[in-house]
Design goal:
2 copies of one chain form a homodimer. With 426 residues, the first copy, chain A, is of the alpha/beta class. Chain A contains 16 helices and 14 strands. The first copy, chain A, is globular and about 80 Å long. Chains A, B: It holds the Pfam family Histidinol_dh. Chains A, B: This is Histidinol dehydrogenase.
């Protein structure tokens, strides 16, 4: 792991956004238009081709869900249940309220909060199974009171989904689980098929085909952010324990070769200890190969002159996950402008937030924490403005409104006011 | 204007999303990459080609702003000032607060609200000048406490911007106004040039080139929604005044030939009166030709059997603007699920919200009110999750977190917890 002194233009530290491969884009477009036209039939065909599954029915049955419980460890089930409770408790605080304001002249203005009607949650299939993803995507939608939540996930060659996926969905009360993955599942959610009603928003992670398909259908339906590779930055001074720092860097690096794990510190000695600890712990990891490639390609320890400079580095990186292991982490909270999730203190390992604490693990990647937020309840509601004017309010303000409209050359706008007021001559 | 009885599949009423012309897309891509590489030089060149202006400097001077006041009518200035005050007052209510929750075991979880660092506001040039657009895009960013707000707008052939644009910007305290438009302005905002620092988010309406450019740079920076043609739906029963309904339909229709103006009513007699009033008022409008084409192509009066059916039509249309002119409009507020702005009662003309009341006029079009919101203060802030665990909390929950991580095959995640707790043996 390289150690580098911070200097010069900090902006160069930012990672650039990756582009979607044009060949992926064109095959995704083909799949989308095929599913739009032929519906379930096209989905069946792609599921056979890509997943090797010949399905007689798209939907998971109640029996399948019940049977799945036999294959899930009791401790894992306890963890899922406790995590779900924590996530629900945290997200309940995010629910916005409809409000109104009134004025003496009879004016009422307001903002109405309404849940989306329907949401589709994409759950990746294959060898890696992430029940936590289901919790993080479904629970905020439930807290928002979305009426219809559909899950889609690609089946294996036997036409089955992983038991942990089924159990998690069942624990949350998700009824409709449609067995399909890839661009074909995104198309089915966006356009609908004979068996699947379309949804208004699609969330959840997926491979490049899923990401490209979501980008294509955006506008027709809403989507969540397109997730890039995962990132962690650990901001630490000489009070930090290098083994903890190293362990957390590696918990990020084991995700993906393209994951990025960076420590920023004011201490040369700590920097060296972190590097040594990373190497020591790396050798003991089952996913050593992946983690090592990530550390070699995107890992670094940056040494800053001052804590202020270190914070500036963090803000430039705008990391998905930020851990602060300094003497008084709360002192820095106000200075941290850009980070998806901020973990404060030495016991706040990133895993705590990934699985359990209650905050969402769907976070802005690739520096988009500069302008994006963690997945949250407001992503599953929308606002409507409310305007209610009295005759008194319109009489009083009508002339100003009309002159503003005429300045913009919109006569009918002016007349719509004047027809209702004493000025009206139309 | 056609009158139609509501029947059958209501979904067919929805308008479909328009696609961007591929030739526009490819020339936009070229402009973007050219500006990314050559910066100001490329912007200058495109400004000469497209706007006919040969600029010596990109930025509007203080003198230009001051001189502009001579060309703006006093009533208009009063209207701009009062509208700005109303907009600021309404949007102040939208500002979210950072919050925290604590638990007995020492856990602290929270959500931090941080303004974006910088925002670019696109203001269209040409013959139609919309000072109201500046108010609606700049004020929410100011309320959010965005530090740097840059305006861009294409100059005329003399290298000048419209006085009303300059005055409005000056009234709001916008300092940096960069004279450029089209895709080249979007590129300059997204990538930066020698004279213009890049921004984190680009908002504001524009022609197809601007829309296509915003779509392309999305991900690298954030953007607001891509606006489609404007829409109004007036929901009315036999208590409604047909002249008011007609006037409001026309205030929408005069915007654009592709604008859509629809009345939904339970009364046959009212439907006919609205049609006749539309024709009568149409003949007196300066923008009659545009409004007539809009009414002929996209205008309609739908007659529903019941108010409940009429509301269902509204929810299917998910209009940008909805006016409710019924005996008791508040009775219907809870039933209205999808609308960008809801105008209640006969004195709440759409113009009131377009210019003056305080709500935002940047609203979701083309049925996207199903999942999108009016432009608001939260569009200029982002959230960061806060997680702070105590040793006690980690000791107690560590085993569950570790077992969850192992279920997902992520050993390093489990170890990052165990290294800190009594379970730790690494």
């Amino acid at each position: 792991m390289r150690i580098e002194r911070v200097k010069g233009e900090l902006k160069s530290l930012r990672r650039s956004v990756e582009m979607i491969d044009p060949s992926v884009q064109s095959s995704v477009k083909e799949i989308l238009s095929d599913v739009k036209q032929r519906g379930d039939e096209a989905v069946s065909q792609y599921t056979k081709t890509f997943d090797g599954a010949d399905l007689s029915s798209f939907f998971v049955t109640e029996e399948e869900k019940q049977a799945a419980y036999e294959h899930v460890n009791k401790d894992v089930l306890r963890a899922i249940r406790q995590a779900a409770e924590n996530i629900r408790e945290y997200h309940a605080r995010q629910l916005e309220q409809t409000w109104m304001m009134t004025k003496d002249d009879g004016t009422i203005l307001g903002q109405k909060i309404t849940p989306l009607d329907s949401v589709g949650v994409y759950v990746p299939g294959g060898t890696a199974v992430y029940p936590s993803t289901i919790l993080m995507n479904v629970i905020p939608a439930q807290v928002a009171k979305v009426e219809r939540i559909v899950m889609v996930s690609p089946p294996n060659a036997e036409g089955k989904l992983h038991p942990a996926v089924l159990v998690t969905a069942h624990e949350l009360g998700v009824k409709d689980i449609y067995k399909a993955g890839g661009a074909q599942a995104v198309a089915a959610l966006a356009y609908g098929t004979k068996t699947l009603e379309p949804v208004d928003k699609i969330v959840g992670p997926g491979n490049v085909f899923v990401a490209a398909a979501k980008r294509e259908v955006f506008g027709h339906v809403d989507i969540d952010m397109i997730a890039g590779p995962s990132e962690i930055v650990v901001l630490c001074d000489d009070s930090a324990n290098p083994s903890y720092v190293a362990a957390d860097l590696l918990s990020q690096a084991e995700h993906d070769e393209r994951a990025s794990a960076i420590a920023v510190t004011t201490s040369n000695a700590l920097a060296e200890n972190i590097r040594d600890e990373v190497e020591r712990q790396l050798q003991q990891l089952p996913r050593e190969a992946i983690a090592r490639r990530s550390i070699e390609s995107y890992g670094a320890v940056y040494v800053a002159e001052t804590l202020a400079e270190a914070v500036e580095v963090v803000n430039q990186l705008a990391p998905e996950h930020l851990e602060v292991m300094t003497k008084d982490p709360y002192l820095l909270l106000g200075k941290i402008k850009h980070a998806g999730a901020i973990f404060l203190g030495e016991y706040s390992a990133e895993s705590v937030g990934d699985y359990f604490a209650g905050t969402n693990h769907v976070l802005p990647t690739n520096g988009t924490a500069r302008f994006s937020s963690p997945l949250n309840v407001s992503d599953f509601t929308k606002k409507s403005s409310i305007i209610s004017y009295s005759k008194q309010a319109l009489d009083q303000n009508g002339p100003l409104i009309a002159s503003f409209a005429r300045e913009e050359g919109l006569e009918a706008h002016a007349r719509a006011v004047e027809i209702r007021t004493k000025e009206g001559e139309v």
